[in-house]
Each structure stands twice: as C-alpha cells, then as structure tokens.
Design a protein that fits this description.
Strand order of the largest sheet: 4-3-2-1-5
Oligomer: single chain
Number of strands: 5
Order of helices and strands: HEEEEE
Largest sheet: 5 strands, antiparallel
CATH topology of the largest domain: SH3 type barrels
Number of helices: 1
Radius of gyration: 17 Å
Mean pLDDT: 86
Amino acid sequence: MLVVVFAIMYFMMIRPQQKRQKEIQKMRESMKVGDKVVTAGGIHGKIKEISDTTFLIEIAENVKIRVDKNSVFASSNDVPAGS
C-alpha cells in the first residue's frame, strides 16, 4: 500500500515539477541579448549582456543591473497582458 501511495505522489507531484523545471531551464538557455525579461522579484528589463551565470539587464535608460540567471522568471513575451 505504501508503494502505491508513493507512486501516486510521484506521478501527481514530483514528475510534473521536474518537467516544469526542465522547461524553465531550456527557456533561460534560449534567451539572447535584446529579449525582454521579468525577474523573480518583478523587475522588467531588457537583456544587454549574457555571461555563464548572470544576465546584465537594462531596467531604464542607462540603469543596468546584474542578476543571476536563476532569478529570471520569464521573458516578457510569456507574461499575459495586464500582468
């Protein structure tokens, strides 16, 4: 019975989360200079430079911040209008 419960939890919770994480990682790897992005903190900006672990994002004219790639939540194209 315990094995059945674990199997159900795996297919209902763990596996979908792993699949979602792979999709997010693939999306981050496909980003390029000029893409508009949103950070996990809600900051909107445009990618100006990409390094191994960080993005340099311009959030206003002549205002740039360096953020970890893992903190980039989505490209602005993925965010629904009005959000």
